[in-house]
Amino acid sequence: MGKVNELRRGKVGKLIARRIREFKGLGRKGSEEWFSELCFCILTANSTAGLGMKIQRELGSGGFLTLPLEELRHRLKAAGHRFPNTRACFIVEARKFHDIKGIIERFTGARQARGWLAENVKGVGYKESSHFLRNVGFSDVAILDRHVLSMLHEHGLIDGLPRSLARGRYLEIERKLEELARKLGLALGELDLYLWYSKTGEVLK
Length: 205
Known about the structure:
The chain is an all-alpha fold. It has 12 helices and no strands.
């Protein structure tokens, strides 16, 4: 992973450091902003971060909390989401956790909070839960999306590209990433951004 060290020394390293600061800043905000980020992660499942960000900007944090189901479906469809009906239903269902910051802060750490999210929030698995937690300032969980998995496969760290990740397999791969992160002197949340950039040429969220 010599390329990661090379990226750290240049403009990409500065961009990723700024993005990490933004995540920490979001973590200091209130539950409405956290809920908006949870909805963003619901939208990115089987879609793209770019489209999720576009919808998030258009609706604003209040839109996820207040728009009626039918209007939310219409807005997601108009934005070009592949699954406007199911994602709108997931978001409306998630409103019962509108105090999501207060809920997460009751847990002792990100791993425990992730388990609760994956079990209780419809449309959210380990990947989406990790994505949400990283984006609100937790740096010790791995986001195993297709780009990261592809990078791990290319470098011989995993055999093949899994079509789906059950909890046990997810945690197994995460442990391999933890070992790599330790060697590089990075947090898992930072390493994810470097791997994502290496595959896509972008630093999003």
